[in-house]
Structures are given as C-alpha cells and as structure tokens.
Amino acid sequence: MGRDPEYLAFLRRRLAEPAGAGETVEDARRAHAADLARSPRPPVATVRDLTVDGPAGPLPARLYRPAWHGPAPALVYLHGGGWVLGDVDSYDPVVRALAAASGVAWLSAGYRRPPEDPFPAALDDAVAAVRWTVRNAHALGLDAARIGVAGDSAGGQLAAAAAGLLRAPDPARPVLQVLLYPALDLRDVPPAPPDPDGLRLPGSGMDRALRAYLRGTDPTRPDVSPLLDPDPATLPPAIIATAEHDRLRPQAEHHAARLAAAGVPVTHLTGAGLDHGFLGWSAFARRPAEAVAEIGAAVHRALTRIPDGPQPFDQRP
Prior knowledge:
The chain contains 9 helices and 8 strands. The protein has helices at residues 5-16, 25-37, 92-102, 121-135, 137-140, 154-165, 206-214, 249-261, 286-304, and strands at 46-54, 57-65, 72-78, 105-109, 142-152, 177-180, 238-241, 266-269.
C-alpha cells in the first residue's frame, strides 16, 4: 500500500531539504543530531542524567521516569544511528516520546561507536548497561524484576544481541526485548524495496556502517546477526515493530516468526505505510505518531503484566 497523504507530504518536504551530512564522521554525527533536534521534547515527570559503569570506562545515560507509585518497570534503550551516529542527547526527543507513550521508565544508555571502537565495544557496553540498571534498580526507583532492553535500527541489533547474551540464569536477563525496525542479519545489506509513491530515497549507507562496525568480524555470529541465534526458545518475550517500506522489514519479520515458532511470546507491530526512522517523526505527521502510540501501549501492557517475571503476552502474528 502507499503512504498516508499527510505523511507522504511530510516525507516529500523532508527529501527536498539539503542533506548537509558533510564528508567526515563528525560532520555526519552533527547533521544527524541536528535532524533529530528539530523534534519537540515531550515532558516526562523526572529526567535525570546518569553515569553507567562500562567495561572500558563510564558511559553516559539518561533516565526518564514517569510519575509512578513505587518502583517503576523500565527499558534500557540503545539508540540507532547505524552504530556510528547518535548519542544519548540527540535521541532525547525520541526517548521522551516513547516514555510518554508507554508510561514506564526508559534508561537511555550511550555506547562506544565505530570507527573509533568497532565490534564488540558497543555490545559490551549494552550488556554492561543492562546489568548496571538491574544492579542499581532500587536506587533508581525501578523494579529490578521488570527491566527489559530496547533499541531502534542499529540499537535494535544491539538490544537483540544483548538479550541473547543475557540468558537465564543470568540475574540481569531482560524480561522483555523491544526491537524497533531492527537490523538483525548483518551478513549482507538487503536491497531497498520498490517505492509505491516513487520517492527517491537517499542511500542507506549501511554497507559503510557495517564495515566500520564489524571490521572483519564474522557476520554469522549470533551476537552479530541475532536472526541466526541457535536457541531462540531461551530468548525473552519480544515486541517487534517494523516499517512497511523498510529494507530491514523482512529480517525482522523472520525473527518474529522464529521466536513465535520456538514458543516465545511475540507482539509484532507492522508499521503499515511507514519508513525506517519513523520514531523521529511522530511530531510531524499523524501516521508515525500513531505508531509510537501503538509501541507505547504494547510496552505498557507487557511490563505491567510482569509482576515477578515474564508472563504471557498478547500474540499478534
């Protein structure tokens, strides 16, 4: 199907703007941050900057805690940006919107990025952030029995890989994984789907990002390509949100099907008519705003139904 007319008009305006990414990694990081900075920052009851103990030193983090009576359920969030771009501050509007939509706490954790720090630095930091959050849950006003891991795009790959490394009996095993248009198979760059509205979308740059991130690492490793996990039955329940016009959609759908076939509860939100990156656009068009609200509602249902550990989720094929 094609896109909603209002959302399509937004995309056309967006594509007509100068790219402004520059030639260096720092130029690209500044342009990416400036793009996200155009979004409003919805209010959250408590927003607190933190420092997480990482394996190679302190990591920046930001806790978004809603008004909640008693310890709040929470997600440790890993930002997108193709592993190379993005940070805690630039993704502040995105996480605020997710926290407002879900009504639960989100702890946005920074991680080391390539090309300065290739694999496994970001994944090591992601795992450390989850463990640190569980260990410090009481001091943060969080419920240690209801902490999950989340991420979008490259952050979704990190979240899925971290969930794979933090299996039971690890005390920091996430009770939920929230994967938002995630990259889950890094063996190759998937082709872009035909565009129903004739949009000339810019190149993804994923091949260059993968080279910087992996730097020769075997892409068939399950901690690189979570789609290839040999034992999906031991993974935590999942919420997987895809975007219809996203080259990553087929691998996320495949992952959802593998988890469901292994008996893992899965909620799949299909993102009809949407594109990769829609989390940053919820303030500009109705359709991405609806999708963020759907994600928030699914997260709230999941984490408020887990009083002492994982419970059955709603199934959405």
